[in-house]
């Protein structure tokens, strides 16, 4: 007799397990139901299609990486340290994500790929908002640093693009960028 699934989280966890161990091509509504010894209908109640399931796994990935108290502080953090934290978290997880998901997205229809890209953009924008929050709360950065052309937003856009380039080259640490941030943001005005 089939057991009853207690949560969507249990389904996602099992789906992630299949995807990481066997690859996305082995993930299906039926394989997920079989793994959990539940009826296919139970899975369809949560995920009407494989595409919905894959998109939920991708969203769950981003949530795990970034929604762990990154913008909740007892006291405002030092911006370069915050940058390093984000960078390290991305660096640790992006390799698995690229290998498992990005290399196998051909199984999705183009409209579902677009949904996946939109979801990714949503999380990247969330990260950028977190950067702006931390940058604005760092009281050691003099407000006189910012001008009409050298704005916080333009600075962060540049920094974020640089971070993505470093990650795409699989650079494991960001010590040079962190040092650059210290020198630029905390330099004494003359």
From TrEMBL:
Q: Does the keyword DNA damage apply?
A: no
Key word DNA-binding present in the record? yes
Task: Supply the alphabetized keyword list.
Answer: DNA-binding
Q: Which GO terms describe its molecular function?
A: DNA binding
User: Transmembrane ranges?
Assistant: none
Name of this protein: TetR family transcriptional regulator
Superkingdom is Bacteria
* Matching PANTHER family: ACREF/ENVCD OPERON REPRESSOR-RELATED, ACREF_ENVCD OPERON REPRESSOR-RELATED
Q: Per the UniProt entry, what species is this protein from, by scientific name?
A: Longicatena caecimuris
PROSITE patterns in UniProt? HTH_TETR_1, HTH_TETR_2
Q: Which Gene3D superfamilies match?
A: Tetracycline Repressor, domain 2 (1.10.357.10)
Domain HTH tetR-type per the UniProt entry, residue ranges? 5-65
Q: Annotated DNA-binding ranges?
A: 28-47
Instruction: Identify the InterPro entries for this entry.
Output: DNA-bd_HTH_TetR-type_CS, Homeodomain-like_sf, HTH-type_Tx_Regulator, HTH_TetR
